[in-house]
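Now for our target.
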Amino acid sequence: MGSHPTPGFKFIKGSLGIRSEHSGHSNGGHSHSHDHGHTHSHDLPDGPGLFDQRDLPMYRTDWNQRGFTVGVGGPVGSGKTALVLALCQLLREDYGVCVVTNDIFTKEDWEFLNKHNALEAERMRAVETGGCPHAAIREDYSMNMAEVRELTQKYNPDVIFIESGGDNLAANFSRELADFIIYVIDVAGGDKIPRKGGPGVTQSDLLVINKTDLADAVGASLQVMVTDANRMRHDGPVVLTQAKNGIGVKEVASHIFKAKELQQKLSQ
């Protein structure tokens, strides 16, 4: 699949447009290979991006082939897995939930979720990307898409979470893979993180600032983080969480299901 548009999809709106099948080799990008032999290219962003110019969700009617998919990205250690666990614990009694995790050479995040009984083991899949985590959620998302489609066929879930491997602030999901994109940063990284920008911070559908309980310990100002996040995102939604303690998780879930309701209503 890679960067090829998936049949039955089209953009509702989005100034960034759909990349052509040769976009990986376009001007302004660079390519490299990893030890595992896979070569891919990177599109170099012109800047941190604007929330109101992000790629918007695709209009699609193939929900029975690919369930509503939520991408959860963010740097290493920001709390992505903890947030996915908390969302599973919150939703699993009333909704059908599945998960796909991404790690480079291990199944670390899958094992964590399984150890903590996030869901039945069969409802969770682990993708070993073998290289740059962002490549598996944007440039060549075929492994993730295959797992999502298989889970959809088997369970017909209400929501499928794809947790990316930890990456930098420039990483973001392809709209052909994720209907709703969450980007997780944490207070422990310092209150400078939101103003550093990057597509994850500025163009995700929802920015989550996690580990708010650590603010005093690391000398970070939550007010500064929220103010900077609102400025960088042009008032795009921001939620403060303590995923490990379940704080703010219901608000995150509310954003997810509001987006799902709107997208499915538009596809009728």
The radius of gyration is 17 Å. The chain is about 30% helix and 20% strand.
